[in-house]
Amino acid sequence: MTTLTQPAAPPIAWTEPVPGARLACADWFVAAQAIERGSIDLVYVDPPYNTGRVRTDRAGAFDDAWPTMDDYIDWLRVRLGVTIPLLRDTGSILLHLDARASHLARIVLDDLLGAECFVNHLIWSYGLGGSSARRFARKHDDILFYCIDPEKYWFEPPLVPATSRRLSGQMKKATDVLDIPAINNMAKERVGWPTQKPLALLDLLVRACCPEGGVVLDPCLGSGTTIVAAISASRDTIGVDRNAEAVKLASSRLFSLTGSP
Ligand SMILES: C[S@@+](CC[C@H](N)C(=O)[O-])C[C@H]1O[C@@H](n2cnc3c(N)ncnc32)[C@H](O)[C@@H]1O
Questions:
Q1: What's the burial of 249, exposed, middle or buried (CB within 10 Å: 0-12/13-18/19+)?
Q2: Does ligand 1 lie within 6 Å of residue 241's CB atom?
Q3: Is the pTM of this model over 0.70?
Q4: pLDDT in tens, 149-180
Q5: How far apart are CA 223 and CA 241, in angstroms?
Q6: Which of 43, 69, 147, 208 places its Cα 20 to 30 Å from the Cα of 77?
């Protein structure tokens, strides 16, 4: 009798550019299988959105097109499926998408985790961009916040400046609409990775959803905004991107943060 065996997944070559940060150039699906189950406090994932084009900027590019929306959602579902078991029972996942697929991804997360694990549909209101004569201008992304256990998940409400005249000059608990400007072309923070997210957004999310000393995983790392936010906020972090340029860029952002080589 012949025994069929699955080919072993290639080993992941992890690097540790600074203490507390592990990085790898790998596919999200493969890397997730190399991470210990129940070891992560927060997964933040900002994958391609299926815009139907190659996203390019001066530091690199990534492919963001699938033959159909069903193909894209299948791609996302299998990766979320291997990632959710990595979370502790106090852990959470933040899935960052836009209006193209966030409604479909919510159904996927309801299926994988149960609708009772839905916590928030966050709106990142970013301001920048053009207008349209045919519709209201699209000025926000969607961040789906799910937990593993509604009774146990860790959360520290972030404080933001109050906008009402009554509370002028005071801080108040953030709502599910996060008003944080996108990175403009002249911003010092800009490193030239397509769709780079602002550090202020990741700082708020990491501090709100991962305890100090906890571990944040970003399996679609890009320029490394999440891991920079995590290390700055005294969290450990794991970052993965299948694009070697992204991993190099993320490492160099960590180096400039800590002053190491
Ligand atoms: C939207 S960008 C992330 C941007 C990032 N949040 C930032 O602030 O720079 C998506 C990233 O996912 C990566 N990516 C796409 N498919 C992937 C896969 N299968 N596994 C790992 N990374 C992937 C791309 O190379 C790209 O860098």
A1: buried
A2: yes
A3: yes
A4: 999 999 999 999 998 888 888 999 999 999 99
A5: 9
A6: 208
Choosing from 98, 242, 249 the residue with most ligand 1 atoms within 8 A of its CB, the one to mutate for a pocket test is: 242
DSSP symbol at 85: G
Pocket test for ligand 1, best of 241, 245, 253, 254 (most atoms within 8 A of CB): 241
Please, which residues have CB within 8 angstroms of residue 160's CB and are 6 or more apart in sequence?
A: 171, 172, 173, 174, 204
193/222 Cα distance (integer angstroms): 7
Whether 60 is in the pocket of ligand 1, judged by its Cβ within 6 Å, is no
Q: What confidence tens digit (pLDDT) does each residue in 196-235 have?
A: 999 999 999 999 999 999 999 999 999 999 999 999 999 9
Residue 3 Cα to ligand 1 midpoint, Å, equals 37
The Cα–Cα gap between 198 and 90 comes to: 26
Beta bridge partners of 146: 93, 118
d(CA 12, CA 245): 17
Give the whole-angstrom CA distance, residue 213 versus residue 10.
30
User: Where do the domains of the chain lie, and which CATH numbers do they carry?
Assistant: 21-258 (3.40.50.150)
Ligand 1, residue 197: give the atom nearest the CA.
Answer: 8
Query: In terms of DSSP bridges, do strands 87-97 and 159-161 run parallel, antiparallel, or are they unpaired?
Result: unpaired
Q: Is 149 exposed, middle or buried (0-12, 13-18, 19+ CB in 10 A)?
A: middle
* CA 173 to ligand 1 center in whole angstroms: 30
